[in-house]
Amino acid sequence: MNQLHKMTAESNALFVSRASSVPQEHAYRRGPRIVAIETVVPHDIMPGLLAVRIHTDAGSVGGVPVIGHGETYYIPTAAAAVLHDFMSHRLLGSDARAIESHWRFLFERMTAFGGTGAEFRALSAVDVALWDIAGQLAEQPVWRLLGGPVRDLVPVYNSCGGPLYGRTNRQAPTSVGWPGHGDSGQPGPLEDNYASVHTPADLAEELVQLGYKGMKLWSFDAVYRRQGGHFLSAKDVREGIAPFEQIRERVGDSIELMLDGHGFFSLAAARRIAEGMRAIRPLWMEDVLRPDSVEAMAAFRAEIDVPIAVSEMLIMADHYRQVLDARAADYVMIDPTWVGGITATRRIADLAQLYNVPTLMHDCTGPFTLLAGINVAAAHCGVAFQETVRAHIATLYPLLIDENVKIADGHIAIPTRPGIGARWLPELFQPEHPGYRRSSL
Ligand SMILES: [Mg+2]
Question: Which pTM value belongs to this model?
């Protein structure tokens, strides 16, 4: 090669490396390498869940095999297909620690075809598992790799789901069967959804005694299930507000109150709910209005006198940016296993912090969603509250993970073991299980 050709080749290479957002071929090929990806849908425990394990050739660290644990929730077989049929081609044989490179490459490839559903859920599960691997290899909790800690204890509130919420439709016969619709629950221990409507003051008293600083009710769900969300009569509004009034009467201001409307209501109905909730002084109302239009959300927030949380139903970072720009939210709610994992959650929390808007971490969707939220909260000053469902932690998570999350005095202590803080129970990953898939080198 003559000197001119050599200079041209070098400048071309420089141009390509600077101009292309696609990672360089060799950069993600170092190692330890990803050698296998396993997924399973635990139908008999949480049928909406996709449990993911990513295996490497790193062997063991501290006597523990290096395996990444992640998850996502909702149409799990679709997310599994994205992972095995599409993403595995990039991941298998690649550097398990090249998290940013994999995130950006998969994001660019999947959004080239408009993929913001199962694709984002699969990417989220991969990202959480890769952060877990990075933590195990570094022999540090994930929050340490994110620059934490910013706190020792993460404040949590109790969302009033019951043990059967999100479990199986067979065992929850009152459920209409669609994720996000929930069920009205039944009398019994930890049936917080049922109790929050039928004996709300007793439930609030119990939660206050346990040290919780906040509780979230879904007291308008029944109205929606009965008649839809377009119109609420004054009587319907009184029905949804009554549990809040009973709680205030019994425990006063000793616990913060929140309402989740699950995106069920039209603007007219949401206005009536807001009117009724004003006297309750909730910490926030969440998704009483469907988050379909940023303009509608901004107008709604401007005309009511109740703080608004928006919304785990958003996925792309730019959706959050639009909401923040439009001043449509007092809080942003993020689900780490929907928006693109720990990587994307941290970016969105950074974005919200620019606007002085606190971040809330969503849960209700599985143990690694909760642990991902806890790890981000441990490393990000902008996180105000982590959602938890004590019924799930007590009844479902022991069937799924090897070290349960503990809530004490309204807080979760940040995890101390290397990685994300727990591992899937190995017995969930049986090749003969009908929900099991594996891709390997
Ligand atoms: Mg919600």
Answer: 0.92
